[in-house]
Design brief:
Layout lengths: L15 E9 H10 L3 H7 L8 E4 L2 H9 L7 E9 H9 L3 E4 L4 E4 L4 H7 L1 E7 L10
Length: about 140
């Protein structure tokens, strides 16, 4: 999985939305191999309800979320893209919640089947590889 992922242009284009999900290594590879799963999401959250799968257009925010995961596990940022028209459809249907502060989207479980079909361009970055500067 050594795919390089960097955003050197706008995270949203007319065709694609480039997103980042802060998580742990095992979960990132699970999403790549098996897709998003409500059952897995509940397991990872120890049975606590969650609104859905959250991802941000700002890799620095992805880094912050990855860093909040348990210290004994390897924090990473999972990068991926989805078609912009897919995001628009979810927004129109009320199936995604937008978080302006974190430049993030929370995809409700009803989106998971379509997300699993359309997520592409996966990458996994361990935190030391990110080289983030928060003063930019």
């Amino acid at each position: 999985m050594g795919i390089a992922f960097s955003i050197s242009y706008a995270a949203t284009t007319n065709e694609w939305v480039w997103l980042n999900h802060g998580t742990i290594l095992e979960s990132a590879y699970g999403i790549i191999r098996c897709g998003l799963s409500f059952d897995k999401m509940m397991e990872v959250r120890y049975g606590h309800p969650s609104e859905g799968f959250c991802a941000t257009t700002d890799i620095r925010v992805g880094y912050q979320y990855a860093d909040m995961n348990p210290a004994s596990l390897t924090p990473v940022v999972l990068g991926f893209s989805i078609p912009y028209v897919t995001l628009q459809g979810f927004q129109t249907s009320g199936l995604v919640i937008e978080d302006i502060k974190d430049q993030a989207y929370c995809f409700l479980p009803e989106t998971f089947p379509k997300m699993n079909r359309e997520m592409t361009n996966f990458s996994v970055k361990r935190l030391p590889e990110l080289n983030i500067r928060f003063d930019e």
